[in-house]
Amino acid sequence: MLFFWHAVDYLFVYGTLRRGEGNHPLLTGRTTFAGPASCHGFLYTVEDRYPVLRLDKSGPAVVGELYCPIDAARSQLFANLDRLEGVDEGLYQPEVLEQSSGSWLVYTAGPALVAYCQPENRIVGEDWCRYRIERSRLGQD
Q: Can 85 be counted among the known catalytic residues?
């Protein structure tokens, strides 16, 4: 089933879907890398396992990557992503950002994860990969 957010021009990823992260293979062969990108908001950790984003136009830049879905793989790509992100369970919710480059899909905190969007869970610097590497270096993972 296709939803309105499946028709976007780009997919913005900021966590485990980024290059070098565990879920990145879901994008391989289904997207093309468009480049590094950012959007404004706040990034939080969910029990140090994965990040969650709250969009906020007045917030800092959240570090991420932009991907262009391959049309032939679009329906399978978004079905897999919606399942991974727990859209039906309310873990993450799809939001469409209208940018000068086109429309971007970003999965943000859904009702089931919004409780993690608290100051004590904030990822200062809004970069999941840097946060994860730093925690690992310090032996805190």
A: yes
State both tokens at 7.
């028709």
pTM: 0.93
pLDDT tens-place string over residues 10-53:
999 999 999 999 999 999 999 999 999 999 999 999 999 999 99
H or E element that contains 135: helix 128-137
Domain assignment of residue 55, given as a range? 4-137
- CATH of residue 87's domain is 3.10.490.10
How many domains is the chain partitioned into structurally?
1
- Could you give the 3-state DSSP secondary structure of residue 83? helix
φ/ψ region of 16 (left if φ > 0, alpha if ψ in -120 to 50, else beta) reads alpha
Q: Which of 21, 85, 126, 134 is catalytic?
A: 85
